[in-house]
Each structure stands twice: as structure tokens, then as C-alpha cells.
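Our consortium's second objective concerns turning raw sequence data into structural hypotheses that experimental partners can test. To show how far this objective has progressed, the report includes one record in full. It was chosen at random from the queue rather than selected for favorable results. The single chain below, 185 residues long, was entered without modification.
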Amino acid sequence: MSNSSVLSRIQGNATGAEHRTGRLLCDCAGIVLVACLSGLLTNAVRPQPLPWIRQPTAQSRPAASSSLTTTKQAAFITLSEAKPLYDSGEAVFVDARHELDYKEAHITGAKLLYFDEVDKYYPSAVGDIPKDKPIVVYCYDPECESAISAGDALVARGHTRVYILIDCLSGWESAGYPVTRGGGQ
């Protein structure tokens, strides 16, 4: 085999490798694009779409103290702080999820205040309760930020003792606390 044919063969292999690498990069870019579009479409059709901008986290909010004092923004509350308020009837519990989710399951006795339609649900949920009565707001899980939105909306309407249940409905249910399924109170 002559030097020129060996050189020609090496150059041919290099060109093929470059072509395969380019094709692989295009395939990867296509997969990423399809995945992003699928995620956007899924989020668009969800009853409770994920927010584009993340809300403040627990570190930037006050925690409810043992005395459950008045706050200027909704504070976080644990199951162990919320359960006595529930048992005594001292607090109103508010579900910030979509109406369909509420009908499926909610804390027994909780009022519906869908975070994205507060004006619609406010009068029937908490419109007639005193502004200083404790309100515990929750959604499905700790990653759900609907409760933060609804809680802040209640504070903006003058409620002074608004608390966000950190453990949400999933934690409440896991602890064996009362949950209603199927739309009842």
C-alpha cells in the first residue's frame, strides 16, 4: 500500500468521524428540544401549573412561634403546631389547591381558597371571619407554592394570623389526621 493511499484512507476516516460527531450533537439537541417542549406543554395544561419564578423559601419567611403571634406576612407552621389549632377549632384551615383537587381530598373542615382565584373564593372561604382569627393554609406537598400565594393574599386583605402548613396535605394525611375524600366537608 502506498503512502498516498494510506493518507487518503486516514483522511476518509477522520471525515466520517466528524460527520458522526456532528450527527450525534444534532440528535442530542433534538432530544433536549423535544423534552423542553413536552415540559412546557404539560405545564400549560395542568390545573395548577408550576410557576416560572420560584417564590420565597422557608428561610426568607418567619416561622410561627409557640405563641403563634401576629405577622406581616404568612409564616410557616409545623404539623405539631397546627394540630392543636385544628383540634380546638381555634383556626380555620384553608386549601389553596384547585377545586378538583379539593374535591378529591382535603383536610376535614377545610375551606377552599384556590390560590389563582382568591377573589372568587375569598367570600365563601374566610370573608366573614375576624381578621385576627388564625388561618392555616396548605396545598398538597412541600414543593407546592400555592399555599404561599394564598397566604400572602390573605395577609394583603388584612388577616393578621396566617400560617402556611409546611407539611401540607400529604404530611397531614401521613400522620393519620382527618382527611375528607370525595367533596364533603
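The partners drew two points from this record. The CA atoms of residues 113 and 120 lie 8 Å apart. Confidence is low (pLDDT under 50) at residues 53-62. Both points have been shared with the crystallography group to help prioritize constructs.
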